[in-house]
Amino acid sequence: MLSIHSILRGIIFYNNMNWIINFLTSSIGKKLVMSLTGLFLITFLPVHLLGNLLLLKGDGGEAFNTYAYFMTNNPLIKFTSYGLYFFILLHAVQGVLLAWQNKKSKGKKSLVNTYTNKTWASNNMALLGILIFAFLCIHMGDFWFKMKFTNRIDIIDSYAGYEGVGIKDLYSRVSLAFKQLWIVLVYLIGLAAMAFHLLHGFASAFQTLGINHKKYTPIIKLLGIGYSILIPLGFAIIPVIMFFK
Amino acid sequence: MKLNLKVWRQKNNKDEGRYEAHTVEATGDMSFLEMMDVLNEQLISEKKEPVAFEHDCREGICGSCNMVINGKPHGPQQGTTTCQLHMRHFNDGDSIAIEPFRSAAFPVIKDLVVDRSAFDHIIQAGGYISVNTGQAPDGNAIPIEKDLAGQSFDAATCIGCGACVAACPNGSAMLFTSAKVAHLGLLPQGKVEHTKRVKNMVDTMDKEGFGMCSNIGACEVECPKEISIENIAMMNRSYLASVFGGRE
After folding, report:
1. Claim to verify: residue B9 and residue B79 sit in the same structural domain
2. Which of A81, A177, B83, B185 has minimal CB crowding within 10 Å?
3. Of the candidates B71, B206, B238, which has its C-beta nearest A114's C-beta?
4. Whole-prediction pTM value?
5. Does the residue B110 lie in any domain?
């Protein structure tokens, strides 16, 4: 039977490109995928945070809504966002697979569990990752999905310069959600998981790339700690402030 | 001092294995292995099967005396092999749990003895220099920077015991392999085949079923020779260079 898979393999063998497959299935290759996708997601977070901080501007949501309109309609942003979805999924699926393989490689664990962990997070990356993924599903289901695929968000036509283009009032949807205590709590838990995930992931990504240097590694580690605290904290103040507003 | 031991007993690889409780009278001057000897003599006099454990040099350089003591490979003392760990670090009445090194790539042969041939296979894949280096050169004929020689020597202190694999929650052998890679690859004679060596040793390491490194760092803490995970970063770099820059 000629399947797509066998055709692909044929092309790869014929062109002597087997080394790519070998690399991507090697232990270091698999880790490199985790590192690069992780670093890409790390560059995304500050951009996302800066946009979201417009929610706190206090102008009834005009700045945030026009920003959301720009983000959903600009072709370049749209293209990048598909890359982002792909990398999130790749990072998540690969991460779970690696954790599963690592568990198999360990086999029976020591019955006295006093493994030396430098940090708690480093030993629980898969668990934290799954928590973050669950949070992302709730987060995207609440805003992204409703924004893109339903008519449940009102249209505003009164913004100067945007008459008739049909800007969706995502701001009202967000402030409605953040008036509910359980949603705010879900966000805080998700962000805490992200903070711990980053606490190990940020510096770890560089080590996987082979960047470990007496002069630069302490800087990377310090930046990593700063990033893992400040970015989730920045995200966390939004639902908290909107809850009490 | 009186010690309450919980020793792992396992007939062979197929056996499930279980803890066995024993009490042993030891003194602070005994090494951990001497305490194990006392236990075995006790067992022999009771006409019971002695506990199988590996040992050879008993001076911290052969890497045989592998056991997990209270959850830590080679016990609680940092930078020390089991044979160099003395009972004075324990107190009268302590309970001590003794297990073999745990990893799917290190199957238990009997009691505390595990099969570490997987490490031999990694060494066979590249732990040597095959270029012709001629006769022994005159001392200092090849200039080598002091720091580099030191770095290579630090990596060369790896005794291949496998504590890194036992300490790693992923059962990864990256610290061992990277120590061998750094030891040979940093010096002029070894540098020639460095990229090829890294590729071959990492590929063999993967084939042997060791886990992947997630940069936890437990290995470097438990390593009796205190090998640094800087070596792992160096190996990652070299592997990438070998895959993308090499001709194979």
Report:
1. yes
2. A81
3. B71
4. 0.92
5. no
